[in-house]
Predict the structure of ABC transporter ATP-binding protein.
Amino acid sequence: MSEVVLSLQNLHKRFGALQATNDVSLDLKQGEIHALIGPNGAGKSTLIGQIAGSLRPDEGRVYLTDTEMTGMSIAQRARLGLGRSFQVSSLAEPLSVMRNVMMGVQALQSHSFRFWKPVARDRNLLDPAYEALERMQLSHRAWTPVFELSHGERRQVEVACALALKPRALLLDEPMAGLGPEGSAKLTELLEALKLEVPILLIEHDMEAVFRLADRISVLVSGSVIAHGDSQAIKQNPRVREAYLGDSDA
Ligand SMILES: Nc1ncnc2c1ncn2[C@@H]1O[C@H](COP(=O)(O)OP(=O)(O)OP(=O)(O)O)[C@@H](O)[C@H]1O
């Protein structure tokens, strides 16, 4: 049995009368990509918030390896080893790729999330940033300003920002959004290699990418996990087809 790195246990979150996540449990094991899919409004962002620390669950617990993260701040979770990318780009456009990646490392090392502080040319920042860019095959763009990058390259930088913090688990929120076939194929190839070092919880609407990448898939509908299994099992599950795949014309 592979080691469980991230574990969500019985997460409940209610907004007024709406049960946005209802008793959600799932785990992420070493070496895998676990995709979380579901129609709009299923509760995916609410779940991400509870994992990342921007939302407090009403009930339930979140663990990274053996450490409970439930009451921790976003910064504490990052320091513990939870890496994440965002649905909306968080990159500073005028700055170089390298500076963007270094800023995250600096924030983590200095225990401060003031991103605009000037970054020194410090090996403690440069080395992990460069290594992360190499893993995303972007070291040749290190000193290019972000505004000159293609959309696909920006996505690679966003993943590199998370990687530079040496995470134990990665939470990727719609990394394929807006990418054409070329960008999506490139990112798929990179994530396939990356998962062997850092397991990935992938929230993604691009079903082609999900079926290509995911070792396991959990399907969230109206706040509850209605199905869970490997890609083939999920593709063929009649409940999933009716509740989700039919709904998105996939
Ligand atoms: N802060 C909030 N206050 C009240 N209701 C909320 C809040 N955040 C989310 N909701 C509701 O909770 C439900 C789940 O929303 P959520 O954003 O988690 O879904 P989602 O699966 O991420 O959707 P999408 O794929 O469109 O991003 C929705 O009905 C949404 O309107």
Summary: The mean pLDDT is 89. The pocket of adenosine-5'-triphosphate is lined by residues 15, 18, 20, 38, 40-46 (CB under 6 Å).
